[in-house]
Write a structure and sequence with these properties.
Radius of gyration: 22 Å
Helix content: 25-40%
Shape: globular
Strand order of the largest sheet: 8-9-10-7-11-12-13-14
Structural class: alpha/beta
């Protein structure tokens, strides 16, 4: 197999995921360059991780990557993606691809430009987490019948929108969103960088959103701002179908004789690292570790699949995560934050401002059908 060569733009905590992947799976991936803003940081990265850390575009270009990974901050993501595509490079963008409707529409416009075609994918990795990939395959198997509703309290915004689509198979259906954001007290336990043991209680955002799809399916989104890191906040998924339901690792369903059954998902893990190697139910395999036992946690394993999928996209044109889905998911995330983002509505700036004030006053947001260029 020809190795996948990629360069990283950005040297924040997210870029290190890609560094660890390249180090753990050298038979699959070659990191040609990691571009830092300063020489001091480049030297530190080179010494600490033994990677080619550089500071200039010229050095990135001369490293001859198959594609660029944009792993800069969210606020700089769109500009970085567009810049490298303008230079003629395929780009795998970290999420989200854009922070405004105009940015998302511009990416689609660039993609549709036949005179100067660009190649872009977005690294939405949650669909490749072992548990979620297993649940997606369970939904596709028909064991639960037709999926009809989902309660999801596990990941935020665009990540959740992607998993909702995958599990309910809603594609680009129109959807109405209603919801609210509350301030809830919780004891602080962890941040990205430190652990708290003083028992201090702080108020965190809890957002509740209902997705009503045009063909009748429903999704209920429930996420707290500290849910990723807090050890006293769990992640939950409840998928209902016409012939059964899955509640986290437990599956209830009717067999071929329409008799009820209850089964637990079976996990096979590496005894040393705890890495999930296989998930199955009865005699059906729902997930197999794509790179075998490689010592990577599930986030990096999922991102590695995005890297491999990016190379497949360049070679064959087959998208691992269709761009229109990535744009739609980022768009839904915008709508979950503010009702003033309503393309297609005949709103004057004054009315738009009034809508924003109404949102700030009561926290409710909703959406009716509205055209997007990628639909």
């Amino acid at each position: 197999m020809k190795k996948i060569r990629f360069a990283i733009i950005g040297s924040g905590w997210r870029s290190l995921f890609y560094v660890r992947i390249a180090k753990a799976l050298p038979e699959y991936f070659t990191l040609t360059a990691l571009c830092c803003r300063s020489q001091e940081k480049a030297q530190r990265f080179a010494q600490e991780f033994h990677i080619p850390a550089v500071t200039s575009e010229e050095e990135v270009i001369s490293s001859c990557p198959d594609f660029i990974v944009s792993a800069v901050s969210k606020t700089n993501m769109w500009d970085t993606v567009v810049h490298w595509m303008d230079l003629g490079f395929p780009v795998l963008s970290e999420t989200p691809a854009g922070l405004s409707f105009s940015q998302l529409a511009k990416l689609w416009e660039m993609r549709q430009n036949k005179e100067k075609p660009v190649q872009l994918q977005v690294a939405e990795q949650y669909q490749f987490y072992p548990r979620y990939q297993a649940m997606i395959n369970l939904a596709k198997s028909g064991r639960l019948g037709e999926p009809v509703s989902l309660y999801l309290s596990a990941m935020h915004d665009y990540h959740a929108a992607s998993i909702i689509r995958c599990l309910l198979n809603t594609g680009l259906e129109e959807v109405r969103l209603t919801g609210n954001t509350f301030q809830m007290p919780v004891t602080e336990t962890k941040s990205r960088y430190e652990t708290f043991t003083d028992g201090k209680i702080a108020f965190k955002d809890q957002r509740l959103v209902t997705f009503e799809f045009e063909k009748g399916k429903l999704a209920f989104y429930d996420f707290m701002s500290d849910q990723y890191r807090s050890p006293i906040r769990s992640r939950n998924l409840h998928l209902r179908g016409t012939r059964g339901e899955a509640v986290n690792d437990t599956v209830y369903f009717l067999n071929q004789d329409n008799l009820p059954q209850k089964e637990k998902l079976q996990f096979k893990a590496d005894p040393l690292t705890g890495e999930i190697l296989e998930i199955s139910i009865q005699d059906e395999t729902l997930y197999t570790a794509p790179f075998g036992s490689c010592g990577l946690p599930e986030d990096e394993t999922a991102i590695a699949q995005m890297l491999a999928g990016m190379k497949t996209y360049l070679d064959t044109g087959k998208e691992i995560y269709p761009l229109e889905y990535a744009l739609e998911d980022a768009y839904l995330a915008l709508l979950m934050s503010s009702p003033s983002v309503l393309p297609g509505k005949d709103l004057s700036p004054q009315k738009d401002l009034a809508a924003e004030k109404a949102f700030l006053a009561n926290g409710w947001f909703q959406r009716s059908s509205s055209p997007r260029p990628w639909k």
